[in-house]
Amino acid sequence: MILAIDIGNTNVVLGGIEGNDILFEARMATDSIKTSDQYCAELKNILALFDVVPSMIDGTIVASVVPPVLNSFRTAIRKLTGKSCLVVGPGIRTGLNIRMDNPTEIGSDLIVGFPGETDADFAESLAFVESMQFANLHVFTYSPRGGTPAASLPGRISAAAAKERHSRMQAVADHSKRRFAESQLGQTLPVIFETVDRDGFAHGWSDNYLAVRLPAELAGGGGIRQVPATRETLTLLAGAERETVED
């Protein structure tokens, strides 16, 4: 039997799969402050409700949008079954067609400094982001909002620690984005131009979210333009600031 787990922001959905049959389905609340031992115990209790013992599990596959919880689950599954789990991500053969030449071009958002985030959690998240080589990654530092469940969670990260983690994660994101931009050199990108700066350069975005610049007289009057990706046209590699004025 394969144990399939989907970790969402609110709920964790899990099910047992044998061939083409779903043997059971269950849910638990997503809780970023639970330890791997707590998740291990909760998983064991849920499996017992369906008369499933760990020895019946041949393997586990996990999809997650909550990195700190994923880390806890990976450890919990290893403790429970004695086996490492497979984590869904680019390169995994799922049988589903992702209609993107490079799925990492979609980009991602990431919060650092969430309550309960340990040094080990952050280190694993940092390593994960480095391995993914995102084309675009928006890094945010957690800030409490009154009336939200997270605002009352224990384990608040100090402002200094959160700032330091943000800086380290942003450095990885910047390096990854530059590496992606360099991988596009020599390609021809479809671009929509939006603004013109004081130096006469039009600025716009390619279909894979790269900032592009071109002399305004070459950018045309609107629509999609096909632009060769060079160190002069890719804003990031040209080091150009997007100081813009109205057309």
Note down, in words, how this protein is organized.
- The protein is α/β, with parallel strands linked by helices and 247 residues long.
- It has 6 helices and 12 strands.
- The strands form 3 sheets. The protein has a 5-stranded mixed β-sheet, covered by helices on one side. Strands 8, 9, 10, 11 and 12 form a 5-stranded antiparallel β-sheet that branches.
- The longest helix has 25 residues, at 159-183.
- The protein starts with a strand and ends with a strand.
- The model is unreliable at 240-247 (pLDDT under 50).
What is the overall silhouette? Answer: elongated
Mean pLDDT: 87
**Approximate helicity band:** 25-40%
CA radius of gyration is: 23 Å
Continuous helix count: 6
Separation, N- and C-terminal Cα atoms: 61 Å
Give unreliable regions as ranges. Answer: 240-247
Chain-wise SSE layout:
Blueprint: E1 2-7, E2 11-18, E3 21-29, H1 36-49, E4 59-64, H2 67-81, E5 86-87, E6 108-112, H3 119-132, E7 137-141, H4 159-183, E8 188-197, E9 201-206, E10 211-215, H5 216-219, E11 224-228, H6 235-238, E12 244-245
Parallel strand pairs: 1-4, 4-5, 6-7
Antiparallel strand pairs: 1-2, 2-3, 8-9, 8-11, 8-12, 9-10
